[in-house]
Structure formats: structure tokens, C-alpha cells
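Batch job 17 of 40 flagged for manual review because the log was empty.
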Amino acid sequence: MSNKFFSLDEIKDKLQVPEQADFIEAFFNWQISKWQFARENYTALESVKVKRFNFPDTSVLVQYNPHRVGSIMALTDEKSIANRKCFLCNENLHAEQVGVKLTENYTLLVNPFPVISIHFTAKFNSHVPQKISENLIEILNGAQTLGDNYFLLYNGPEAGASVPEHRHFQGGAKNKLPFLKDIITKIENRYKANSDLTLMDVLDFKQTKLFAVQDEIRNYFVITGVNASEIEEMFFNLFNVFTSLFGAEKEIKLNLISTVEKGKHYLVIFPRAKHHPSCFFEEGEKQLLVRPSTLDIGGIIVLPREEDFNKITKEKIKEIFSEVGISNDDFKHIISEVKKH
């Protein structure tokens, strides 16, 4: 099969998807049936080792997944990027890979190196660098097109992206990322249930709200609302505060998750202090090969070496999240500054 690209209507017609059926899952299953390499990797995913660490009001899954070593160890300096082919450009896609138009500028592809059992990449249609400040609306629109069962995520160029030279999102099945269901439930039931999680209502703008959230291992923000333009405006208020506080040569370090549920957008924002934890650069027994991306920060830590999977502890997870996330003091300062706008 040569590379082919379809509109949403074309893929629905081609696969004869009933009106109310999940056409995204139908596309995924069809693509896997036609692509042996990807199919073998998804089959292998079913037998990866996984263990759970529970924290007050949250949990983290750790996955031993050797197929992800290429992403975790990818070199992202300018020289390395210049000397490699971009596997997201059309001419370098796998021969069997098929794309579906997700938004005006993004094409949805099945990710052949999965972390979760339905895993996508949404690539920009031309070769330009990762830069959320130029396309935040696309992750909101893309998540809305995917529907309630899915999410999109963004890895910043210095916050987990292994291909920062080509603009893209990743995405997948929402039920495979338990963090999302948990935070949506807690926001929607914030006046009803007791919780160890700290949830602060920071700002209201028309129908849009900004929440600041602290759990045992993370400081982050969530914007909710029904109007994508309002969410975009609130995001950039927050983004500008981040930029003034941290600065950046390329872009401030952050990770995003975008999803919709019952007509409402949920945009989760993880500000970052560092790209790599110090254990990534250690040697011998002290080394632990982890480069946190959005999925890691969202509760699925991917380790490509079994020795790291065996030795990681609850305390080490807290240490890694504390090191790459923003401090409590910076978190409070951001909240204070945002309230002035």
C-alpha cells in the first residue's frame, strides 16, 4: 500500500463506518490490519511489564517498553537534526502508513511505536519546528474532532519531544490515561467530595475557568470551557506569565493534554523546569534512562531498560517529578501574576 491521505468523510465511506460508531477506532483497526510492522509492535505492547505506584489522590504506571528507546534516547541538538531524515515528512513515512485529515493543518497517523493500545501521531502538513504559540487552537480543534473517547497531547521542543524539528501532537484513547478521568471527575465534583488534591479556582473569563492543581507529585493548571477562542486567550495569559518568569531560547518548557467531554474542553498544562532529570546523565547504578514527556508526566512512565524498571521506586518518581516540574514557590508566583491580568 502506498501512502494515502483521506478526509474524515472519505475514511468513513471507505470503511463503511455507521453514523454513531467510533470512526477513529475503526480507522486504527483498519490501519493495523494493513501494516505488519505496527501490528507486531501493538501485539508486543500487550505483554510489556507494568507496575503501579499509588500516591495520595493520584497514581503512576511504570512501563518497561524497549521499543521506545529510540524516542527516549533521540538526540535533539541542531547537528543531529540536520543529519537525519524527518520521519514525519510525507516522503519518509512508512510505505503502509495512511493519514486522515484531522484539522486544516494536521494529519492523523497511527503511531507504530506505541505506549498505549490506541496511539496516534498528528503531524503538521509541512516541515516546521514545534511551537505551540503558533497553533494552540489546533490541539483544541483536533481533540474536538477526535471526540470524547480520545485526547491529544503536546511535547514542547525542550519538554519531551523527540522530533522537535517537525510540528506534531500525539494522541490516544482516553481510557488508557487514567489521570485524565481522575482530574475531570475532581474538577466537576469539586464542591462535593473530600480530596487530598489541592484544587484552586484561579480565574474566570466568561464561560472559561482556570484551575491550579497540586497533588503529591505535580504542580499544574487546567483550563475548562466550551469556547475554544476563550480557552486560547486564557492559555496565552498563562503562557506569557511563564515566559516572563522562565524565559526560553526556543519555547518555554511545557507539556499539554487536550480533551473534550460532554461538550466541554479540558486543557491540562504542565509547566516544566527541566528537560531531563539528573539521573539521565548519571553513570552506572545511579543512571536511570527517563526523559519525561507528556505521557510520563500524565502518569505513564516509560522505561526502555529492564534494569531501570526493576529499580525505580516511589521515592525516585517523586524526585524526578519534583526536579523536572516547577517548584511550589514558582507555582504560587505564577498564580499571583495570572490573577493580575
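Reviewer: the log was empty due to a logging misconfiguration, but the result itself is present. The first strand starts at residue 4 and ends at 6. Unflagging and moving on to job 18.
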